[in-house]
Design a protein that fits this description.
Largest sheet: none
Strand content: under 5%
Order of helices and strands: HHHHHHH
Radius of gyration: 19 Å
Shape: elongated
Low-confidence stretches: none
Helix content: over 70%
Distance between the termini: 53 Å
Number of helices: 7
C-alpha cells in the first residue's frame, strides 16, 4: 500500500485543483446558468436546421466566433442586446421561450 501511495504522489499535480471553486460558482449561479443552457440548446437546434456555422453566426451578429462558442457552451450571462441579436439572426424567440420555461 505504501508503494501505491508513493507512486500516486509522483504523478500528483503541483497545481491545486479548482474543482471546488468551480462547483461553488455553478451552485451560486445555477439560476441564470439554466437559462443560458436552454438558450444554447435553442440556438444549436436552429443552427443545425439552417446548416449554419459558428463563424457565420458570429459574422451576422457582429462578434467573434470565440464569443459564439462561449454562448453555445451555455455558460455565458447574456445581455438583452445579445439575446435580441441571436433572435434576429436565427429567427427564433428566446425571450418568449424563457417566459414559458419560467411558467412551467
Amino acid at each position: 500500500m505504501k508503494k501505491v501511495i508513493e507512486g500516486l504522489k509522483k504523478h500528483q499535480s503541483t497545481t491545486p485543483s479548482k474543482w471546488r471553486e468551480r462547483a461553488e460558482w455553478m451552485q451560486q449561479n445555477k439560476s441564470w446558468l439554466r437559462h443560458s443552457q436552454h438558450i444554447a440548446m435553442l440556438m444549436l437546434d436552429k443552427m443545425e436546421e439552417m446548416n449554419m456555422t459558428q463563424k457565420q453566426l458570429a459574422e451576422m451578429m457582429g462578434c467573434s466566433q470565440q464569443y459564439v462558442s462561449k454562448v453555445l457552451k451555455g455558460q455565458e450571462n447574456l445581455s438583452l442586446e445579445t439575446m435580441s441579436k441571436i433572435e434576429d439572426c436565427l429567427e427564433i424567440s428566446i425571450l418568449q421561450n424563457e417566459l414559458e420555461l419560467e411558467m412551467a
